[in-house]
Amino acid sequence: MNALEVNKLRKRYGETYVVNGVTFEVKQGELFGFLGKNGAGKSTTIHMLTGIIRPTEGSFSIMGKDYTQMDQIKRRIGVMPDAANYYYDTSALSHLIFFSELKRIPWKRDELVRLLESVGLKGHERSKVKGFSFGMKKKLGLAQALLGDPELLFLDEPTSGLDPESAVAIQQIIRDLNRRNKTIFLTSHNLREVEQLCSRIAIMDKGCITKYGTMEDLRNQYRQHIELSCKISPMSPAQEQQIKKQLINIAGNIVIAGTSLTCTVPEEEDIPLIVTALVDNRIRLYKIEPKPVTLEDIFFNIPDLA
């Protein structure tokens, strides 16, 4: 079952479509990454999916409920916005009590205390929010999103602005939630974070989904060739000439410098041919590594992929 299904979703302001025909799905229990540069239409899409604004055209469903049943959908989702507002003179516990009542969620004090403990706020239940650090406020925002035990969580920039230790703590909480079969829709400008956490990723640009799939899917779409870096024994000028002659129809961009050889090959199947050529010429091969394609490579080269 899909937790979220989006079909040809559009949002128009005046004559301009800021979201233009977006279609994708999020599987139940999936940790899904949603990326886009500023102005790509990402926030507008999220605002439609969470009921803040209505679509101009298209549709979506959450946990089998059509978007026209937004009141029912809101009971089954939790939202952690990037910029959350807090009541600074209330305690963390009072904050959760207020929002539980606002969402008409039955609550018990012990359950809310355990919820605060689960996001790393143990011992701060009665502390006023105005004394919280930025990281603690992020954790409180996550606790607020978890009120009512939602099936689908929208987490918008959950680690932005955090120090490394706090960011790692939040990431671990996200992993733990996902292991409990929570479906998580994650947006972040931290591309490494998305690459590490998410099983599938969608990238928006100019109101459209330009790339969509697993990291391996995205790498295969992006990669035109494989860059290889080899650590080798030093070779003589004659050996270097022979190697280049032997590899000319296999590899491109061949550069030999001391104990380093770099080149590009079209396919993985060509890598053993590089090894064979080196061995045939009595050159020792200590290490051969393909350069990994990162999410950053893919994200910042969207125009080349369209």
Mean pLDDT: 91
State the order of secondary-structure elements, H for helix, E for strand.
EEEHEEHEHHHEHEHEEHEHEEHEHH
Strand order of the largest sheet: 6-7-8-3-9-10
Radius of gyration: 25 Å
Report the principal-axis shape: elongated
Q: Fraction of residues in helices?
A: 25-40%
Structural class: alpha/beta
Which sheet architecture does the biggest sheet show?
Answer: 6 strands, mixed
| Termini separation | 30 Å
Number of DSSP helices?
A: 12
Beta percentage is: 25-35%
Task: Work out the number of β strands.
Answer: 14
Low-confidence stretches: none
Written account of the structure:
This protein is α/β, with parallel strands linked by helices and 306 residues long. The protein has twelve helices and 14 strands. The chain has a six-stranded mixed β-sheet. A four-stranded antiparallel β-sheet has the order 2-1-4-5. The chain has a four-stranded antiparallel β-sheet with strand order 12-13-11-14, with helices on one face. Helix 3 packs across helix 4. It is elongated and about 80 Å long. The two termini are 30 Å apart.
Topology:
Elements: E1 2-13, E2 16-27, E3 31-36, H1 42-49, E4 57-62, E5 65-66, H2 70-74, E6 77-80, H3 92-102, H4 109-118, H5 134-145, E7 152-156, H6 164-179, E8 183-187, H7 191-197, E9 200-205, E10 208-213, H8 215-222, E11 226-232, H9 237-247, E12 252-257, E13 260-265, H10 271-280, E14 285-290, H11 295-299, H12 302-305
Parallel strand pairs: 3-8, 3-9, 6-7, 7-8
Antiparallel strand pairs: 1-2, 1-4, 4-5, 9-10, 11-13, 11-14, 12-13
Helix pairs in contact: 3-4
